[in-house]
Amino acid sequence: MGKDSEFVPVVDLSAARNGSGGRRGRTSVAREIGRACESSGFFTVVGHGIPAELTGRMDAVTREFFRLPAPRKEKVLCGPGKGGLRYAEGSVARGAGGDAPPDLCEIYTANVLGDLAPERRARCGGADAPWTRANDWPEEPAGFRDVWTAYMRAMGGLGGDLMRLFALALGLDEEFFDDKVDRHVSTLVANHYFPPSGPPLPGQMRMGAHSDWGSLTILLRDAVGGLQVRRDGEWHDVPHVPGGFVINIGDLMAFWTNGHWVSTVHRVRNPAEGTTDSRLSLPFFFLPNHDTRIEPLPRFRKSGDRDRVTGTTPGEWFRAKMAATYS
């Protein structure tokens, strides 16, 4: 595990999250995070304060949903203007400029805005923005909606605090990002990867090579392997840390830092031939406010050089990426 664990380091948030370390503790943790964001864009957090009881219930109720017979799951099949269950129609690799068959997974999604009234959601980017879709909650298993809602609330709090630590790591006021994420349009996704009924098509993966599109991702994963990051043209496994969340920054955070922090390409490889293990991952995509203008911070602009990105918003960026992925 050595080199892989160095590339995806473990960061203990305890001193920053429980108040025991004070300002010095938060600054120290922020420095660790900053180093990881500069080198790999990936790190694993422990000491995050999210109760194991909540993550356990989240894992259990989501697995129970995916074990339902298809007709019962498909009562919440996603459609125009609403989230829910869908089967991979394309590969996220297409959004990164690649070409690949559909990913080998089924997906359930819910949005932090998804239970608001339609007129409230419509103010956040229009019908083509994925985060404005209404949530379609399954009636079974019992308690699914309550657990997912509680989990989204906890992830929103952790995501907001990570953005404050990002600000410290970048030498900014800790509150710099607060007004840019105070109406965040985050999405919670469950990816259920299952063995294919036959040999995968050429180039077909559980999830193709891609970078995440938002500001940061908080991933709850099981112990089944498969998540890999690309480094120097080679693929490296992301070590599993019991009780930890894998954090990676996305494209929007890389834009803010003009590429100083890296949005690293990653994938979910197929299991070894003959292996029948399914795999569950629960990424929470923490996204800024839909209309936040994202452009390189002044400290990362070089005199005489053109910025890598002149500016975008989550709405503009996601529209372009979704068109590339599903075209």
Automatic annotation (TrEMBL):
Keywords: Antibiotic biosynthesis, Iron, Metal-binding, Oxidoreductase. Residues 183-288 form the Fe2OG dioxygenase domain. It comes from the Bacteria. Pathway: Antibiotic biosynthesis. Belongs to the iron/ascorbate-dependent oxidoreductase family. This is 2-oxoglutarate and iron-dependent oxygenase domain-containing protein. It comes from Streptomyces albiaxialis.
